[in-house]
TrEMBL record:
It comes from the Archaea. Keywords: Membrane, Transmembrane, Transmembrane helix. The chain crosses the membrane at residues 7-28. The keyword Transmembrane applies. InterPro entries: CARDB, Ig-like_fold. Pfam families: CARDB (PF07705). This is CARDB domain-containing protein. Residues 259-338 form the CARDB domain. The keyword Translocase does not apply. Coiled coil: none annotated.
Length: 738
């Protein structure tokens, strides 16, 4: 009995459990299905809400009403439920708009004001705010603008179909647009047919901009057509902004696509002859396919064709055709087309030229800029190439800025060859920059084959700025305005620099401090700086004769003065600055160098305010031998002169200036241009213009040049201008005036 009771109890318990499970199942399962359906509907509504987009197409203001035209620019049907004006409910109802559809809404217009904030809301909870201005109403300050809308993301473009082989790597490409009011992060997710996330990427998109996204994934392992979807998740709002369907075609590769990559842009030959035309075609598609290449003549007729039975993806086919040139000479436009036999459509077309029996000329080299003095003649060098297949003659014509023919020349050029010719052109008579042209006239066709423009610049040197030069003399004769304090001063022939005349002074101990001085009577105390350069000749080793410059405070033998001199002592030359202050003679500075020549060049720079002296001694070839600096303010010089003490001395080529007489300056140049200064056939100096367009030419050896020539060349060495000048003096400044 006890065992039977335990069995009955167990069976009873089992029955109770089964009945309880059945009751729970019958009660809860329908509710589970209801919950699942509600969740599915909620997700669908979220996707549809993210695809809504609406704009105001037109606004009409009446005296007391506002008429709005609403346009559905989104991808799903929407219902407009309410319209607010300045945050007050102005209209409420139900207006259904299909994608692209329009609808009208009329609402009361608040009184007062010209600017209105209009908010339109749909049944799915989306709202858009717009600013509208009533230009017919009196001006009133607008209400404060609403806060910037949160980011809202939409696919601007995406791959709706992705092709590939089973199990191959593929890529989903899209462009995400932020149509909201602030920047934010969008999460792009790719989901398979079971809504399983396959790939995702987060991208930041500023408001009003787009960002590209590429998701790499593996195609399904089995052939077929799959429907996946791509989803835009808004990290800012936590909402799904958009869902789009993506089709995966795992059964077919992309179709073939053909493109012309290379071809003869021009073919030429005698009329009626066969011409070779070569074209290359590449398959840019995803599968192999057949194609037909067709060549059409200028009348649209089929001139030749050829087919390729199978061209693999990425492969190139090269085809060669023989086409017949037109019977009449001339230039013709033909075309080549590629027909895709898979898609029954033309994939690509290119035009090319057929030239029948004609030379073709091109201007291949010429002076891009021609320079010269106004009214002068200049040479224009032109290179012409015959790119045709026949020999021919070309007339090269040059036209000025007024369109007038100013030069021409005919030249015969074999096919494939180049020839050069030089034409002389007369430049405009006024300074300026002009645009001229070169034309290549084909004598065979009577047409211009090529035209090239070039620049003509007529330049000139402005008169020199001589204000920095106070006095200069070659001592061919005694200068006016000069006098002597002691000594015998005269012009002596044949003893000067290179055998010219020179100034000779013989000391007689009757000048200031027993020194003979030849001085300039013009007062120099108005100049803060005096600079001077002179050549000293007849210098004998050990002659102990002092010669050089004198700076005096008066023009008589009682003068106090500075001596800037050289003096041969033994085997050396001493460069010294000495002062006689009326009571004592003091040496302010001295430097010694070895004696080397009978001619020396002495340069002095004296600054009045500081009483500073800067002296430089050069050899006859202008090589620097010594420098000396000293200072003293015990004497206030008013006169400049030359001195000799202890014998006879020769002086030549004197320049007194406030600027540096060792240099001639030329400005207004193009950086890199070169200036040459010539003295007859001797190149005195040359230099390239710096970044400011200025060059300083050293003329220490030739500070005064008569019948000089300045030559200016461009960076390529071509002469810009060549100008003869009566005299060039150290310290002059020239300006190239365009």
């Amino acid at each position: 009995m006890r065992g039977q009771s335990e069995v009955v109890a167990a069976l009873l318990m089992t029955a109770i459990v089964l009945v309880g499970f059945a009751i729970v199942w019958v009660y809860l399962y329908p509710r589970y299905l209801e919950w699942e359906q509600q969740a599915s509907n909620t997700a669908l509504e979220s996707r549809l809400a993210a695809s809504e987009w609406l704009v105001i197409g037109n606004t009409v203001f009446g005296s007391d009403r506002l008429d709005l035209t609403l346009v559905n620019t989104g991808g799903v049907e929407l219902k407009v439920r309410a319209v607010y004006v300045n945050e007050s409910l102005a209209w409420q109802g139900s207006l259904s708009l299909a994608p692209g559809g329009k609808g009208e809404v009329s609402a009361p217009l608040p009184r007062g004001g010209r600017v209105f904030w209009i908010k339109v809301c749909t049944a799915r909870g989306n709202c858009w705010t717009f600013l509208e201005v009533n230009l017919t109403a009196p001006a009133a300050p607008p209400p404060p603008p609403p806060s910037p809308a949160p980011p809202f993301f939409q696919f601007a473009s995406y791959d709706s179909v992705v092709y590939g082989q089973p199990g191959s790597q593929a890529s989903f490409n899209a462009e995400v647009e932020n149509r909201g009011g602030t920047g934010g992060y969008a999460v792009v997710g790719l989901y398979d047919e079971t809504s399983r996330l396959i790939a995702s990427r987060t991208v930041y998109v500023p408001a009003g901009t787009r960002a590209p996204v590429a998701l790499s994934f593996s195609m399904p392992a089995s052939p077929g057509v799959y429907t996946w979807h791509a989803q835009l998740n808004n990290s800012y709002t936590g909402e799904v902004d958009q869902v789009v369907l993506v089709t995966l075609d795992v059964t077919h590769a992309p179709p073939p696509a053909f493109k012309i990559t290379d071809y003869n842009s021009t073919v030429s030959g005698a009329p009626g002859t066969s011409l070779k035309f070569v074209v290359s075609v590449i398959n840019t598609g995803g599968s192999s396919g057949s194609l037909t290449v067709e060549v059409y003549n200028h009348t649209g007729g089929l001139a030749a064709s050829a087919s390729v039975d199978s061209l693999q993806p990425g492969a190139t086919a090269r085809l060669q055709f023989l086409v017949t040139a037109p019977q009449q000479p001339g230039n013709y436009t033909w075309s080549v087309r590629v027909y895709n036999n898979y898609t029954d459509a033309y994939d690509d077309e290119k035009n090319f030229f057929v030239i029948a029996a004609s030379p073709l000329f091109a201007v291949t080299a010429y002076n891009s800029t021609v320079y010269g003095l106004p009214g002068s003649s200049a040479n224009l060098v032109v290179e012409v190439t015959n790119t045709g297949n026949l020999d021919g003659s070309c007339v090269v014509e040059v036209y000025n800025h007024q369109g007038s023919l100013v030069a021409s020349s005919s030249i015969h050029i074999p096919a494939g060859s180049s020839e050069r010719l030089a034409l002389t052109v007369a430049l405009p008579g006024s300074k300026g920059t002009y645009s001229w042209s070169i034309k290549a006239l084909n004598s065979y066709t009577g047409k211009y084959d090529d035209v090239k423009n070039f620049t003509v610049m007529t330049l000139d040197l402005s008169p020199p700025d001589t204000s920095a030069v106070l006095f200069y003399s070659l001592f061919e004769a005694l200068p006016s305005g000069w006098g002597s304090i002691g000594g015998a001063w005269s012009i002596v022939g044949g003893v000067g620099w290179e055998g010219s005349n020179a100034l000779r002074g013989v000391d007689n101990n009757r000048g200031p401090r027993s020194t003979s001085v030849y001085y300039w009577s013009n007062n120099i105390d108005g100049f803060s700086t005096i600079k001077a350069l002179v050549k000293l000749g007849g210098v004998s080793q050990g002659d102990n004769i002092a010669r050089g410059f004198a700076l005096l405070d008066r023009s008589n033998r009682n003068a106090r003065f500075y001596r800037v001199i050289i003096q041969p002592i033994g085997a050396n030359i001493q460069l010294s600055v000495i002062v006689w202050d009326g009571r004592n003679t003091r040496t302010l500075g001295t430097v010694t160098v070895s004696y080397s020549t009978s001619w020396y060049i002495l340069y002095l720079e004296y600054t009045r305010g500081s009483g500073s002296f800067y002296a430089v001694l050069y050899g006859e070839n202008s090589a620097q031998l010594a420098t000396l600096q000293a200072s003293d303010t015990s004497v206030d010089p008013r006169y400049f002169g030359l001195l000799v003490d202890g014998g006879a001395a020769v002086f030549d080529d004197l320049v007194v200036a406030t600027g540096d007489p060792r240099y001639v300056t030329v400005s207004g140049l193009t950086p890199g241009w070169v200036v040459e200064l010539w003295r007859g056939s001797t190149l005195v100096a040359s230099g390239a213009a710096d970044a400011s367009g200025t060059v300083r030419l050293s003329v220490t050896r030739y500070p005064i040049i008569q019948s000089a020539m300045l030559v200016i060349k461009d960076q390529q060495g071509a002469v810009v201008i060549r100008k003869t000048l009566d005299v060039v003096v150290g310290g002059y400044t020239y300006y190239l005036d365009p």
